[in-house]
Amino acid sequence: QVQVVERGGGLVQPGGSLRLSCKASGTDYTIHLMTWYRQAPGKQRELVAGITDGNNKNYADDVKGRFTISRANGQNTAWLEMYRLKPEDTGVYYCNVQGATLPPPNDFWGQGTQVTVSS
Q: Is 30 exposed, middle or buried (0-12, 13-18, 19+ CB in 10 A)?
C-alpha cells in the first residue's frame, strides 16, 4: 500500500521560512512525479510546485523565486523550501505522487500539513 506523508508545517511570521518534506513509501520503484499543492480556507486546491524523477521542475507563478522544490536522487522523498513567506501562503500543503510504476490509480495523496503565516 502506497503511503504519502508530509511533515514540516507550522506557524511562521511573514518573511520567514519553512521546509516541508514528503516521503512516499510502499513501492520499490522511483515515482515519476511528486507535486506540492495547497488549499487555503474557502479556496480550491492549487498547484505549488512539482518535480519529476528526471529533475524537471515547475512552479506556480506566485511562488517562483521564493520556493524551491528538490528531490533525493532515485528516492521517493521531496522537499519544498519556502522563503519570504507571505500571509497568502497560508493553507494546508498536500503532496501528490503519480506514476505508472504505482499501483492503480497511479495517483496518491498525503494527509496534508498546515502552514500558517501570521504575525
A: middle
